[in-house]
Design goal:
The protein is α/β, with parallel strands linked by helices. It has a single domain, classed as 3-Layer(aba) Sandwich (Rossmann fold). Helix content is about 35%, strand content about 15%. Helix 1 crosses helix 7 and helix 3 packs parallel to helix 5. It is globular and about 65 Å long. Bound molecules: thiamine diphosphate (TPP), iron/sulfur cluster and magnesium ion (MG). Magnesium ion binds next to loops.
Length: about 350
């Protein structure tokens, strides 16, 4: 489908071969009082997606872009629009659950028409779609893949909290193996979610995305740089944000930081980017974070009670570890090129 190329350098990456200049490090903007979301949201204490959305929006505003945002139904939409709008001067449309990809196209068409009429300059705008994993992996997938196939300019952000949280924790295509949700309950015969999760960057690249990336609010600089790259790169760009959800994950509300670190160090969540070179039919992959210490699957599962059942079953924990290891093996050429050897879990120089 495409040739895989690897960036030898591991880490946060300001450069893209698709852009003439590196993007500006967010620290270089200085202490500009630019907020992303405004105050008044109704998210639960410890909710990751509020922070992620705030950082993404702030990154775009720092670039001087006016954001036109299409928000898919889900927690993010509900908690930022019900009492008061937290979107400030951002132009917002709340679309239906399945169609964030389609409304992205509608907004692009409107911007084109306004630009032809001389009412706006298109380079000042960024077209943003933002939806949950249910609205992305499941009911919104057709609209998203069709938007990617049309090759239009814009950014699609998936706030991945790994289930349909706003309607009572139903399992989605992004739900981890073994997780207890209301549609994949942990019982005596069937032990939680029996499927392995799908991966949005894989789906988006297969459909033809120009740029894909994964990010997390804990590494806000990396997240904001990726959003700024996506705004500058031509064509459809897709970013997925790890979104801690204490309500659905049955975790304490004050371990946002610890859970994310464990996710990264256990490699349950891998920070990376893929950039498409259409002429050469290549995708260049960059690994942005190397685990600091070896963390087993079991250690990651420990802080979240949605995994309390599977933690008691050794074969399920082993299977979860095998899924993580299999996905991580994709990065073998980069690790070898950097002289990093595989230990039992994690990698060390
Ligand atoms: C067509 C349609 N079906 C069902 C719903 C009900 N609904 C609203 S939000 C939601 C779940 C959203 O899940 P996700 O996209 O993962 O976002 P989260 O709430 O987890 O952030 C559902 C099923 C709807 N609004 N429209
Ligand atoms: S249910 Fe989860 S995603 Fe929704 S507001 Fe609460 S913590 Fe955030
Ligand atoms: Mg969700």
């Amino acid at each position: 489908m495409f040739n895989i190329l690897y960036n030898r350098d591991i880490g946060i990456n300001l450069h893209s071969f698709l852009l003439p200049e590196p993007v500006k490090d967010v620290g270089e903007y200085g202490a500009i009082p630019t907020t992303g979301l405004t105050s008044g949201h109704q998210g639960c204490t410890g909710c990751g997606m509020v922070t992620g959305t705030n950082q993404a929006l702030r990154a775009l505003k720092l670039m001087g872009k006016h954001v036109v945002a299409s928000i898919g139904t889900g927690c993010n939409e509900v908690i930022t629009t019900q009492n008061t709008s937290c979107w400030g001067e951002t132009s917002v449309d709340h679309n239906n659950f399945p169609n964030t990809g389609a409304t992205l196209s509608g907004n692009i068409a409107a911007l084109k028409a306004l630009s032809r009429a001389g009412a706006v300059s298109p380079e000042r705008f960024v077209n943003l779609g933002i939806a949950g994993d249910g609205g992305t992996y499941d009911i919104g997938l057709q609209a998203l893949l069709a938007w990617i196939a049309r090759g239009e300019d814009g950014i699609y952000i998936c706030l991945n909290n790994q289930a349909y949280m706003n309607t009572g924790i139903q399992g989605s295509g992004a739900t981890p193996y073994g997780a207890n949700t209301s549609t994949t309950p942990f019982g005596k015969v069937v032990h939680g979610n029996q499927r392995s999760p799908q991966y949005l960057p894989d789906l988006a690249l297969a459909a033809g995305a120009s740029y894909v990336a994964t990010a997390c609010p804990l590494h806000h600089r990396d997240l904001m740089i990726k959003v700024q790259k996506a705004a500058a790169i031509e064509g459809p760009c897709v970013i997925e944000l790890y979104s801690v959800c204490p309500e659905g994950w049955k975790s304490e509300t004050d371990v946002f930081h610890e859970i994310t670190e464990l996710a990264l160090d256990s490699r349950f969540w891998v920070l990376y980017e893929g950039e498409r070179d259409r002429a050469g039919n290549n995708v260049l992959f960059t690994l942005n974070y190397l685990p600091k210490r070896p963390v087993s699957a079991l250690e990651y599962l420990n802080l979240q009670e949605r995994f309390s059942g599977m933690r008691q079953l050794g074969d399920m924990v082993e299977h979860a570890q095998a899924l993580v290891d299999a996905r991580w093996s994709f990065w073998k050429p980069v690790l070898e090129a950097n002289g990093l050897e595989r230990k039992e879990v994690g990698y060390e120089a």
